[in-house]
Amino acid sequence: MEESVRQQLVDDHFLFMSGDANLRISGMERDWPEGRGIFHNDDKTFLVWVNEEDQLRIISMEKGGDVLGVFKRLARGIQTVADSVKGECGKGFMLDEKYGYVHSCPSNLGTGMRASVHIDLPGWTEHGVDKLKARCEELALQPRGTRGESGGQTGCTYDISNKHRLGYSEVQLVQTMIDGVNKLYEEDLELQKKIYEFPTFLSVNSLVAKYVTKELWDKLCRHVTSTSGFTLRKAVICAIELDNQSNGVYAGDWDSYKDFAEVFDPLIQEYHGIKPDAKHTSDMDFSKITGNVNPDAPVHSTRIRVGRSIDGYGLSPGITREQRLGVENLMKSAFATFKDDLSGNYFPLTGMEESVRQKLVDDHFLFMSGDANLRISGMERDWPEGRGIFHNDDKTFLVWVNEEDQLRIISMEKGGDV
Fold first, then answer.
1. Is the pTM of this model over 0.70?
2. What pLDDT is recorded for position 156?
3. Please, are residues 85 and 55 in contact by the beta-carbon 8 Å criterion?
4. Kindly report the CA angle at 141 between 140 and 143, in degrees rounded to 5?
5. 3-state SS assignment for residue 48
6. Residue 150: predicted pLDDT
7. pLDDT tens across 158-178, in order?
8. Alpha helix locations (H) across 42-169?
9. Shortest CA distance to 144 belongs to which of 155, 134, 133, 135?
10. Which residues contact 236 (CB under 8 A, 6 or more apart)?
11. Which 8-state DSSP code applies to residue 317?
12. Nearest to 301 by CA among 417, 415, 410
């Protein structure tokens, strides 16, 4: 394949590639790339993948919501392929009386069909992704991020598809998807009306519950920040959904502290015990430090860490996918400049080999998903993309990229040499 063709297929999101562990280990990538290819029509609305996970993966798609039109084109395309194959070799598609159309993965038996739409559901997003998943289960649907099964969810756009493959006809599954999506949209419009209603805070003793009054909420709840599109509801969502918060608020970008200052300022002042006119001074000049920990003191280890955020990029609760990747790329460049005792390696979480992951776990270096605050506040969107860990060769200097902070920078060693 010529590079110009390959790049065009990448730009169109049509290209399938090698590297998937399941495909490799199961033997599906033998003789790669021989015998594989991609067909698409001139309008780029009908595709056939040849010899990827299945012998054939036949796809019909277009912008907008004309599901019936997409299904009609799919049916015509499938029949045309079937007629051509039958005419040339006398064979038809493998169709089992019990299991339907035969595929390499048992999860695809039956119709082998996944009918989906990409749809914005801002009301459901605010209501809660877990609640959307539960509702889709009731409707026999499956919600995903717009970049597939492991690609993560971004913003309020979801890929909604039929959940079942086996035991239902293609027509039944398409109809289920159409009816379910229409129902989700109808419910989303109602949920959007509730976004601006003054919430009930489960964390009744949190600082958010103390300082976010209905008057203040009504004043600020419709404002959206410019850097990452953050809102007051997103900022206080942990105090709304969890009952164990002391503060209950996160900033989605630097703008949040300015645009929602009437919430953040009194809360910060109480938490840190500072006055409204306080000024912070930063000083990293280590030559000003006098003395050290007594060498006879039974100190096991010393660790100092800071968080840092790059101007112009959102903070973890609000950062966009593009901004997160931008931060990671900036750090990859920075890591390449490290010399002497800072020199080391960066380990991105995406595509991390099991041996590397286990070593980072053994060293107690790895951060992982699953924290309720990080999940509910939006910090785990698109997980694990754009995240990673750098450590130097001596394992005394670490940088976590895009966890709770854009950067968490750590210096540590055995003993008490602070």
1. no
2. 85
3. no
4. 150
5. strand
6. 44
7. 999 999 999 999 999 999 999
8. 67-89, 122-127, 129-138
9. 133
10. 199, 201, 208, 212, 248, 249, 263
11. T
12. 415
Q: Which helix (H) or strand (E) is 328 found in, with range?
A: helix 321-336
83 and 89 Cβ atoms separated by less than 8 Å:
no
Length of the chain: 418
What is the structure's pLDDT at 54? 95
The pair of structure tokens assigned to 185 is: 């949209």
pLDDT score at 19: 84
Cβ contact 416:292 at 8 Å: yes
201's tokens: 């805070």
Please, are residues 349 and 400 in contact by the beta-carbon 8 Å criterion? no
Contact call for residues 369 and 383 (beta carbons, < 8 A)? yes
Give the residue ranges of the chain where pLDDT is below 70: 146-155
Please name the amino acid found at residue 139: L
Rounded CA-CA distance 28/24 in Å is: 6
Instruction: Name the CA dihedral angle for 63, 68, 72, 78, rounded to a multiple of 10 degrees.
Output: 80
Write the pLDDT tens digit of every residue in 114-141.
Answer: 999 999 998 998 888 889 999 999 999 9
Q: Determine the distance from the C-alpha atom of residue 248 to the mean position of all C-alpha atoms in its chain, rounded to a whole number.
A: 22
Instruction: Look up tokens 């910090």; give the residue.
Output: 379
Cα–Cα distance, 372 to 365 (Å, whole number): 20
